[in-house]
Amino acid sequence: MSPDSTALVWFRGGLRLRDNSCLYEALNANNRVYCCFMLDDFYMRGGDIGAARAAFLLNTLRVLAQDLASQGGGLILRYTQNPPEECARLAQILGAGRVYANRDYMPYPIARDIRTQELLAQQRQEFILCDDQLAVRPELVKTDVGTPYTVFTPFKRRWETQLLQVDLKDVQPLLQRLAPPPPNLSQPIPDLAEFGLVLNQDIESAGEHAAQRRLSEFLKTGLARYDQHRDVAAMPTSTSRLSPHLKWGTISIRECIRTALSNDGPGARKWIDELAWREFYYHVGYHFPHVYEGPMLKEYSDFPWLNNPDHLELWKQGRTGYPFVDAGMRQLNTTGWMHNRLRQVTASYLCKDLCLDWRLGEQYFMQMLTDGDWPSNNGGWQWVAGCGTDPRRATRIFNPTLQQQRYDPDFEYIKTWVPEWGTASYPATPIVEHSDGRRRYLQLFNETAGARLNARTSSGTIRPTQQPSLF
Ligand SMILES: Cc1cc2nc3c(=O)[nH]c(=O)nc-3n(C[C@H](O)[C@H](O)[C@H](O)COP(=O)(O)OP(=O)(O)OC[C@H]3O[C@@H](n4cnc5c(N)ncnc54)[C@H](O)[C@@H]3O)c2cc1C
Questions:
Q1: Are 214 and 245 in contact (CB under 8 A)?
Q2: Which residue ranges have their beta carbon within 6 Å of ligand 1?
Q3: Phi, psi dihedrals of residue 414, rounded to the nearest 5°
Q4: What does residue 448 show for φ and ψ, rounded to 5 degrees?
Q5: Domains 134-167+207-287 and 298-457 share a fold
Q6: To the nearest whole percent, how much of the chain has pLDDT over 70?
Q7: Model pTM greater than 0.85?
Q8: CATH for 6-133?
Q9: Would you state the pLDDT for residue 295?
Q10: Could you tell me the fold of the domain covering 134-167+207-287?
Q11: Buried b (16+ CB within 10 A) or exposed e, 381-393
Q12: Mean pLDDT score, 354-378
């Protein structure tokens, strides 16, 4: 380190001080470190933005700004349509020799970072990207012949062999190197209304302290029995509820994995499996970016979805007449979060029973979730629709009644979210009966995507009788 080296940390995800790779690297190698965040029009004005996710982000930024200020630094917030130019301009004003950021794996940020690198190089400033968002970066998980995985279980086996390298970064002793921003450089953190958004959901508390509380609560009450309870939607401690914090990086993935590894047992092992799903979908999107444009399997490209707009609206509102589906949708609409079992059941009802294009559901989830995350959301939807990484494809059609009998046998979850269920105000019949929807979907599938998949894989036609009991 030269005696007066100055650096700029550009926060994107990874909105925390604790165990933050780019912050650690910057503080370690420089003695004056400024911090910034760009509110990017690409995200804040896009069709997928929703009040829950935007509010969670803005609340998180408020906590981050306070935390940085309490350590003698501060957050420079810039609202911009061109983050690379804004970053290069800031680096110039601040006299930063290096800019540090955590690496992102989606197509847009990859292109953004290439442009940033070019602009900074023109100014003779370094751009240093650090691995932080994932426990294992995509280049490290490949098959023996060097190709990316498209099936989860073999992916996970290989991914796990890399986990020994998960080390935490102790930033605390270095925080005195944070520098307060010069006056008038930062814009105020805006209100939601500035984006034309109104929050009608009671969302999760934001920021890294809230994330730490969630993790210790889960450690006390959920982790050990996670393998047994994770599908019990009515039980608040059945899962960690850390997804918005993992999405925005108010907790580090390394810390989650470390916590699980040091509390070994069947619950902790199952939890690591779920964290691996998140990594899997990031890796899939990195290696096969076309998944963000359409189905991973090209055989589904022109699937004849029926796309009845009334059905879509009733699904969104949680008024399909299947109480388990409706309870899930209402939990989402009320809190900005939905239990994983319900995400599967509601998604399956949308794309299989109602025969609506899964991308309509994908977009609605993105608009309503605090944890709306392109890789996990896209991966989850394509898995349910059968056009992504799930080798069982079309045969997985969740039966909403059997799912309720298995996972909410006492109707506890349903009673919480659908109070009128069981009264005359609740629909007597569903908008589409599961057996009818399933038959119709399989017929369309066998005539189109299924026929093309058969031609490619020479597997047999899928008949409605080939169903395991819960589907
Ligand atoms: C249709 C559909 C859409 C989804 N959309 C999203 C999304 O936008 N954002 C999101 O974070 N998750 C998404 N998921 C995955 C999963 O439902 C949530 O991560 C989980 O419900 C979050 O609750 P939790 O934090 O209590 O999870 P836990 O059970 O405690 O799991 C811990 C963490 O592991 C990760 N994880 C768990 N299961 C999965 C999974 N199946 N796929 C990917 N990551 C997983 C999450 O980061 C989660 O926080 C989706 C799943 C489906 C079926």
A1: yes
A2: 230, 239-243, 246-247, 274-275, 277-278, 281, 340, 343-344, 347, 365, 369, 371-373, 376-377, 380-381, 384
A3: -60, -45
A4: -125, -95
A5: no
A6: 95
A7: yes
A8: 3.40.50.620
A9: 94
A10: 1.25.40
A11: bbbbbbbbbbeeb
A12: 97
